[in-house]
Amino acid sequence: MSGRGGGRGRGGGRGPPPSTSVGRGRGGPPPVRQPPVPSHYPSPSTTPSPDYPSLPSSSTASSLAREFDRKLTLPSTPSPSSPAPPPPVPSVQTPAPSQAPQLPVVTAPSSSKSLRPPARPGFGRAGRKCVIRANHFLVDVVDKDLHHYDVTITPEVTSKNVCREIISELVTAYRESHLGKCWPAYDGRKSLYTAGSLPFSSKDFVVKLVDKDRKDRRERKFDVAIKFAGKADLHHLQQFIGGMQLDAPQETLQVLDVVLRSAPSTNYVVVGRSFFSPSLGDPPGPLGDGLQYWKGFYQSLRATQMGLSLNVDTSARAFYEPVMVSQFVEGNCNIRDLRRPLSDQDRIRVKKALKNLRVEPVYRERRKYKISGVSAQPLSQLTFSSDELGAKTSVVQYYRDRYQINLSYPNLPALQAGSDAKPVYLPMELCKIVPGQRYVKKLNEKQVTAMLRATCQRPPDREQSINKMVGCNNYNNDNLVKEFGLRVKVEPASIDARVLPPPMLQYLGKQEAPQVGCWNMIDKKMINGGKVAFWTCVSFSRLRENDVYRFCEELVNMCRNKGMDFNPTPLIPIDSAHPGQIEAALKYIHEQSNAEISKLGHAGKQLQLLIIILPEVSGSYGTIKRVCETELGIISQCSQPRHAIKCSKQYLENLSLKINVKAGGRNTMLYDADPRVKKIDLLTDLVTIIFGADVTHPQPGEDSSPSIAAVVASMDWPQVTKYRGLVSAQAHREEIISDLYTVTEDPNKGIVHGGMIREQLIAFRRITGHKPDRILFYRDGVSEGQFSEVLLREVDAIRKACVSLEANYLPRITFVVVQKRHHTRLFPARHGERGSTDRSGNILPGTVVDTKICHPTEFDFYLCSHAGIQGTSRPTHYHVLYDENRFPADALQILTNNLCYTYARCTRSVSVVPPAYYAHLAAFRARYYIEGQMFEGGSSSERGTAERISEVRPLPRIKDNVKDVMFYC
Q1: Separation between Cα atoms, residue 344 and residue 351, nearest integer Å
Q2: Which three-class secondary structure state does DSSP give residue 959?
Q3: Are the C-beta atoms of 875 and 854 separated by less than 8 Å?
Q4: Are 324 and 431 in contact (CB under 8 A)?
Q5: 482 CB contacts (<8 Å, ≥6 apart)?
Q6: Which residues contact 176 (CB under 8 A, 6 or more apart)?
Q7: What are 613-643's pLDDT values in tens digits?
Q8: How much is the mean pLDDT over the chain?
Q9: 20 within 8 A of 303, measured Cβ to Cβ
């Protein structure tokens, strides 16, 4: 069997800070700064206590807090030449015995800079050596005197483009006379940078600017104040790259990044760190429903081991198609007949689709307007005062008399621009969408497919496009780049890499050696088949009864053939129901099943699996999962009717893999994790629990919807294949997981400890009979700018959760950030060479890189653990933020790669370590639970944003029997 599952399109964010580097030398890393292993760790050979104490005594906990303070206190400013101390975990402060109980609080360190990720423990050596290329381009820099100036523009301007126009006009007018002939670099906001000092420390200028959107208006006058703020230190940057400084000189990196972004920012549409234009790459192409894609490039300067590295990648984004507004509304809002009046629901949908969009009338001078809304009345009923006497004129009549235009769609509402006091009404059919406006909302399935089809490139084509983009940008001939002494090499970086061997997989009585990231289950049975004694099926589709029976029969046979103990007879007869009665049908099945189980003499047991054939029309999946998992406690397996009717062998095999783990079984495991073998470094020597965590955020515009955190944890050791999932809602777009560890005060119970880490540790002890001596935590969804906060708060929450269970319980923690949303791509040195590429032309699965393009001193690596399916594979970036286990480079890289072969839903290695992947799936599942509930109790427009964000409605509680299995698969 060869299920799909190689790549995954999301993950952590490597939104790199503006980075830069100087020089070429690599330099050795500073002395290793690993945390000390406390002497009072539980011994692995110690017999575990019968249960976790609910709370340590106040005196013991107070003693423990003092011990933490003594062992984990750092000097605030460590000497660069001496080994840096280990990162502290802020202690849990508990009261002295004589004091009344109080809630524990976090004591933050005196300086967050004292919390540092560990130094690289050395470079990996395992695997077959090879040479690959990366889309990183070395940047040389001459030692210059970099100056930073603050810029204040009055009146205040919010548009970066207008700010750039103002400074451009200032440079044109005053460069020779007042700026010492300097070419300054401007970031579009408050900072101006020069290579050398300006002739003044502070000066005011007057700049006049003509509004390009309003040719009839007079010039606008701006006062611009430029004031010296400081100097950037290139020497510090060189020291950082050479491993002799621990703090990245962010201001210096910012200066050089702004220099290299200056010309593209002026010439192209800027979206984050990417630039787009119809002239870049292929011409714009349609996405459907009034949208089109533009191609462009991503660019980021960062400090790496090899020096300053410019990361350049191809990019594509959705933009509004420059069509008439009426045409856009017809396609995007699915309005079939524009001649008929809109319903209130359609009008609200149109208003939401058009708000803040810029348009220009086609019947007069090309002035641009920003849409603030749409009128409540159609054009045919909309009137306004046409003279000083207050005489009313209809909009339709106005356009007929003034412009001799008979409106074709008088029943459409008017576009509203201007202010509420002085609104401007514009007919949709006479306004065109201004080109170059990015579409920020979620694309539908059809548009996503069109985008992928248009942008998917094989490795040779993508590398060629990147190299062409670098050549076209012609950085080295830009006046500003030359002035600041930068020079970008046009050849991509060549890197020494290694290909790690795949692990041996264990099935029932057989081993399997994967080949190029894939294997099959032909003539193999699951290592531990789950048991399904009570099951049934319901179809909400239009499939005939015979087709539903055949699907169930073949699916049950497949599960049995693969090793499951699956009762061939359903508990209650297979049935069908109307898709409009889903909740009622599910509750009826639950009642009938419970009654039948009681009749059979199995009181206390319940339906173990409900097979569901979905309706042909989408939209019911979330309701089904919410009702089954949070109200009824039913494990379900859904199937699309188009797949159920085909009953293909591969599809049934894939379903059997999912059903087995939902029934508590294991599909496969690492051979070296077999309890009789147990020879995986830093996994099988001590009782180890592996966590995965992720936070998913609502799509743009959904400001009333919470973010959802998910934490999964392995519930078997040493196999580490079963992961229990927990989810929690938190504040809108809050990235730090708030529910890892919680403390509340109950009037009756006193201090109550809770949180997802604590619950998972208790479940691990209940299921395995052991308490973990080691915690390996994979955290997805974190960008570089959030590293310090995650390290400060989440590692501390993990430690507090452990201490709350047992006074001296300090399992060794390793905390690894998993990042997929970055733009590093790795290419084979020779495209098409057999033996060094997979079937899609990508680098081989298991390719790992920890040199040149990685952090100068910290413990990080890129791992391409999967075989490509289409397009260019994206490696996953792993960055260790905390490591009490002192993982050698090889041990962590091999373990991470091997875990990628244990993903339950397919027979391929996957691109992201499974615990992080499972956490993403669990969070995504929880999003379904709250679909349609966001606007109960008032629309988002009726309540203040601060009020909506502060109110976090808890998620429906998942039933305990559901949480204990991999329900999210």
Answers
A1: 10
A2: coil
A3: no
A4: yes
A5: 476
A6: none
A7: 999 998 899 999 999 999 999 999 999 999 9
A8: 87
A9: yes
d(CA 454, CA 291): 13
Specify the 3-state DSSP secondary structure of 752: strand
Distance CA 605, CA 609 (A): 12
Edge-to-edge strand list for the sheet holding 220-232? 185-186, 191-195, 146-154, 220-232, 202-209
Question: Which amino acid, 88?
Answer: P
How many whole angstroms separate alpha carbon 841 and alpha carbon 832?
A: 6
- Write phi, then psi, for 445 (nearest 5 degrees): -60, -40
For the ranges 80-89, 533-542, 731-740, which has the lowest average pLDDT?
Answer: 80-89
Peptide bond into 155 cis (omega under 30): yes
Residue reference for tokens 């939902």: 662
Q: Which residues make Cβ contacts (< 8 Å) with residue 914, sequence separation at least 6?
A: 692, 723, 899, 900, 902, 903, 904
Nearest partner of 688 among 775, 758, 749, judged by Cα: 775
Three-state DSSP class for residue 278: coil
Q: Which helix (H) or strand (E) holds 798?
A: helix 787-805
Strand pairing of 723-730 and 688-696?
unpaired
Best CA proximity match to 69, nearest among 47, 52, 94, 46: 94
Structure tokens at 657: 């893999």
In single-letter form, the type of residue at position 708 comes to I
Return the bridge partners of 209, or none. Answer: 220
Longest alpha-carbon distance in the chain: 97
User: 762: which 2 tokens?
Assistant: 């208790």
Pairing of strands 565-566, 531-532: parallel
Alpha helix (H) residue ranges in 335-413: 344-354, 395-403
Q: Are strands 812-821 and 876-883 parallel, antiparallel or unpaired?
A: antiparallel
Amino acid identity, residue 660? N
In the three-class reduction of DSSP (H, G, I as helix; E, B as strand; rest coil), residue 665 is classed as coil
Structure tokens at 427: 């007919």
- Count of CB atoms within 10 A of residue 738's CB? 19
Secondary structure (3-state) at 49: coil
Rounded Cα gap, residues 896 and 879, in angstroms: 12
Q: Judge whether 783 and 14 are in contact, CB under 8 Å.
A: yes
Distance CA 540, CA 192 (A): 63
Backbone angles phi, psi at 663, to 5 degrees: -90, 5
Do 594 and 949 meet the contact criterion of CB atoms below 8 Å apart? no
Please say whether the beta carbons of 671 and 501 come within 8 A.
Answer: no
The pLDDT tens digits for 902-961 are: 999 999 999 999 999 999 999 999 999 987 443 333 333 333 444 444 578 899 999 999
Q: Which amino acid is at 25?
A: G
SS (H, E, C) 862-910: EEECCCCCCCCCCCEEEEEEEECCCCCHHHHHHHHHHHCCCCCCCCECC
The bridge status of strand 291-304 relative to strand 307-320 is antiparallel
The predicted structure's pLDDT at residue 219:
82
- pLDDT tens sequence across 164-212: 999 999 999 999 999 999 999 999 999 999 999 999 999 999 999 887 6
- Decide the pairing of beta strands 609-613 and 636-639: parallel
Whole-model pTM: value is 0.87
Alpha carbons 786 and 806: distance in angstroms, whole number: 30
Cβ atoms of residues 949 and 943 within 8 Å: no
Nearest to 136 by CA among 467, 459, 461, 462: 467
Can you give the pLDDT at residue 98?
A: 35
Cβ-based burial of 486 (10 A; exposed 0-12, middle 13-18, buried ≥19):
buried
Radius of gyration of the chain (CA): 31
Strands 269-271 and 413-418 turn out to be unpaired
